[in-house]
Design goal:
The protein is built from 22 helices and 4 strands. By secondary structure, the chain is mostly helical.
């Protein structure tokens, strides 16, 4: 065979092979229909599917960095959300910035808008509590745009919230609480009871436009049992009616204050210190301070002691000092200062002594302090007396005096 003939044969052979002209092999071949069916079945190609999802997630994550999450979320197709969100979650758990939280909330909410059932099924199936929380809160936020009641049902699936996501649901809770107030006290208390516990350091007081004739006594009775209003930190909620005592006082200040005195005298702790501030917005702060000073001065010693022991009134010494300065007589102010010091004498006396800052005469301060008895720890007292310029031997005498047991 000549070289030219050999070349023609090789070219012809190669062309025939490329066109499928080769003789059929004895080895078995795959059924073309089965091959096409396998290509249509994701389970038959998990590696390829996972690779495609990861590639899509990486694409959208890169876009978020350059274009922002709110713009990109509009473009993400429903089928890419799961991989994208899980991709972002994989980069943040252990620690999550406000920016990362916002990205997740925006994406999950947009996913819920396009595929609510798919987003809900995914969120409910998450094993990580924080991830599940962010997922359900984000979905509830989206659903709340059209159906606040349905959104709350999703939110109520959580036992506790540990991420500061309150801003995302504030409008929903505002709507629900105001609707409930128009229905009944029971509706409000049911909403409060079903709201998840708060595992964060922040909470929101919901402004409520209470209808005429509203039963505030029944409301606060119930809130003491269902929220942190009664001082039970286990009942701390991310949302609760804002300053119910203040709202009550705007309608009937004497009734609200009388309830507080009765309850604290009976040993029930109450969080009510926002009430004077609410009154001050209506009456003016000076008038509200004078009212509080007169009310506190008019109480019996036992009622004053109960109020100081069982409320958050003592959390701000500066605020309490304003009320004392506005008491009708100096004698009433002196007796209240002494009583306050007596409640702080063992454990918080250093803090309690601030109540005397408005007594300008040092000897008058000392006279009040010397009336204390049964002070078991002079921590804070000795440095304070020294700062007031009291001689060391006189300080020793004062400490000896206040350490004596109380006489009945």
């Amino acid at each position: 065979m000549s070289g030219k003939e050999c070349m023609i044969l090789l070219v012809t052979f190669a062309a025939g092979a490329g066109a499928g002209w080769l003789a059929k092999s004895d080895a078995p071949t795959a059924d073309p229909r089965a091959t096409k069916a396998a290509e249509r079945n994701p389970a038959a190609r998990p590696g390829r599917e996972a690779s495609a999802q990861a590639k899509a997630a990486r694409h959208w994550m890169d876009r978020i960095e350059t274009s922002g999450v709110r713009e990109v979320a509009k473009e993400v197709p429903p089928g890419d959300f799961k991989a994208l969100v899980e991709g972002l979650m994989a980069t943040v758990w252990g620690g999550m910035s406000d920016k990362q939280l916002e990205q997740l909330v925006v994406l999950i909410a947009d996913w819920a808008g396009k595929d609510l059932d798919g987003a809900l099924a995914w969120a409910r199936g998450l094993e990580n509590p924080k991830q599940r929380e962010v997922g359900l809160v984000s979905i509830a936020m989206k659903v709340a745009e059209t159906d606040p009641k349905a959104a709350f049902e999703i939110y109520a699936e959580l036992d506790e919230v540990t991420t500061d996501t309150g801003n995302y649901l504030s409008e929903m809770m505002q709507t629900l609480y105001n609707d409930a107030a128009k229905q009944s006290v029971e509706a409000m208390l049911n909403l409060a009871a079903r709201t998840p516990r708060n595992g964060t350091s922040g909470s929101m007081g919901v402004y409520i436009d209470y209808p005429a004739g509203f039963d505030f006594r029944a409301l606060v009775d119930g809130l003491v049992k269902t929220t942190e209003l009664g001082g039970n930190h286990e009942l701390y909620k991310p949302f609760s009616p804002g300053d119910p005592f203040g709202a009550w006082a705007l309608r009937d200040a004497d009734a609200a204050f009388g309830y507080i005195v009765d309850q604290t005298s009976a040993g029930q702790h109450l969080r009510w210190s926002g009430m004077p501030y609410t009154l001050g917005k209506k009456w003016g702060s000076l008038e509200a301070d004078r009212w509080m000073g007169a009310k506190l001065a008019a109480l019996s010693a036992d009622e004053q002691r109960g109020l100081l022991a069982e409320s958050d009134l003592t959390h701000s010494t500066g605020t309490l000092r304003k009320y004392i300065m506005n008491m009708p007589t100096e004698e009433a102010a002196t007796e209240f200062r002494l009583l306050y010091l007596d409640t702080t004498k063992n454990g918080m006396l250093a803090h309690g002594l601030e109540i005397l800052n408005d007594v300008t005469d040092v000897q008058e301060r000392v006279a009040i302090v010397e009336r204390l008895r049964d002070v078991k720890n002079d921590f804070g007292l000795r440095p304070a007396l020294n700062n007031w310029g009291i001689p060391a031997d006189r300080i020793d005498q004062i400490i000896k005096t206040v350490s004596q047991p109380a006489t009945k």
